[in-house]
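Model: You mentioned two targets. I'll fold them one after the other.
Researcher: Yes, keep them separate.
Model: Target one:
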Amino acid sequence: MLNITRLLCGVPTPGDDLRYGERKTDGTRAEPVHAKPVVVWNITRRCNLRCVHCYSSSVDSLYPGELSTTQAKSVLEDLSCFGIPVVLFSGGEPTTRLDLPDLVQYAAQLGLRPVLSTNGTLLTSDLVGCLYEAGLRRIGISLDGLGPTNDAFRGKDGAFEAALSGIRESIRGGMRLSLRVTLTTRTVRSLPGLFDLAEQEGIPRFCIYHLAYAGRGRKLLPFDLSHEDRRRTVEYIFDRTLQSASNGIGLEVLTVDNHADGAHLLMWSARHAPDRVGPALRLLRRNGGNTAGKGIACIDNVGDVHPDQFWWTQTVGNVLERPFSEIWTDPDIDLLAKLRDRKAFLPKRCSECRWLDICNGNLRVRAESATRDLWSSDPACYLTEGEIRV
């Protein structure tokens, strides 16, 4: 996750302590970056929508074997004792679980930082108020276009208006809201309109995801952006970020799941904002690029543990059989060991790339899905051969 606003504008934003290991607001030094993972927890696989890019391939039905409230609370206790910084409740659609407020409250009581990732369509004033009272302060809501574009992408008429209502209820309810969109050839035309929407609605944060070829998203590979379109889109994001800052709006803009964006930002800044190259490079090196298996982890609806939220084809344990903390610190789990020191396993294009220390080989699940080799090149890397050579 690259904080374009911080990198291009130098404006600190919430969450920078996780990305860069900076001093906290109380003046104390944060832990080293990625010392403990952010845990994405898909507490249910059930969803009221049927998004074409869903990495969990969710549908609106009951899934057997999902963790009970009691089991979920035991997992939260272990995560708290282990010292993870954030637990992100996701799905499926997490608001379909009636015990969500109870789980949020328990996480907050344990000292965890709870975050909610939702499609927003089920968020009412009462539910937002209940979640706020439970201790939730941050919500991410996904839109993949405006109006009919979003509805077609999400498999349900009226999904856009329902999500927009959820956005407004969340802001009125005191939540810090993140708007999220996934880039494909179907959604990229809506990007200017979504920027406008974020600014008009007073949404403080806009996260723009590159497509991960996972779950139903594997079928969207032909609809992913070409390297040329991806480059133009990322540059548009840079321009809109600077425009928002200069207009005094100050939208926090992030790109997610493609660390080639960091290298491109540095090269783009050398031409357009040379004073930001040094500070941005230092921040990107502190962050270190993709952290699947180290700085990010996933627990799915039945308790299986994965290296990141998209990578359900790779499982390293189950929290019903063994605590997450033990799984994550087990030196004998081969995949985790390789992901944490991956240079020797990456393809030559990555291992000899001059940007390796800020990219770390990019998204491995995308490489595996596209080539059946998790150590091949990420096909979404749009840097040219000339750009990656020293």
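Model: Target two:
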Amino acid sequence: MLKIIIVIPIYREEHNIRPLYERLKGVVSQLEEKYAFEFIFVNDGSPDDSILVLTEIAEEDFRVKVVDLSRNFGKEIALTAGVHEAEDCDALICIDADLQHPPELIPELIQKWEEGAEIVVTIRKDTEKQPILRQIGSKLYYWILNKVSDLDVVSQTTDYRLYDGKVTKVFKSATERERMFRGIMDWLGFKKVYIEFIAPARLHGEAGYTYLKLWRLAVSSITSFSLWPLKIAGYTGALITIMVSFAFFWMLLFYIVHGELVYSPLAIVILANTLFMGITLMAIGLVALYIGKIHTEVINRPLYVIRERINLG
């Protein structure tokens, strides 16, 4: 039988875990003649009772594996930990615990995989009760990422995906610490197909990704997969330098021809210094982002720390 592992990151999902598990169990029961399923729940340092609920389910079902991280490392790392713990699988499915990723879509993901797809990606056509600010921010983010990076990113794609076993094996060799999980998967370049769905509203609780976390993820993903922020700083500095040079040349020419300056020399110096200071500060800020990422990689801390494994060797 082919082995399929389903990875679910958990953070503040105490009331969603049991309903998700029951729906997953109902879906995979229809496919168990051909596939053997396992579930890896990664508790990402949840401050609620998520780990207690996971422990109870793991005691009821040996297929349920639990990875309890020592603290909150973030969803990207939690997904990575789940993939690292998945061994010898023919395919791996990542799904969120808030039930905005319908488990009933799993048979269609598997069907596309059977037809030859190496990565099956879901696209969120719409989300019930999603704040308008998140919708606008998401579309803007994907537009910018497509423009400045070498990735071929389709707008509104989600982490709800199926990966062939060979894809996850290659992914395990990725070493960066500040990571965008699906960005790395897209960078690998395997053959993808897409499935659209409408995401329902969260069953319980609030989204784990605050606007601040989303902003940090956007900045991290753009600087991870593109050098354009640094190039923009350089191009902007060059453009302003040329414009200021022409302005000074015009002022000098006007002085030579008419014998007077339109503005005082002091005003000209202050304006020029202000422009150059702005360019310098912008460039330093962008360079600092990349230096910070280099620092994070060089200190070589572990990606995550596991407090406990349940039903895992």
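Researcher: Noted. Anything on target two?
Model: The longest strand covers residues 2-10.
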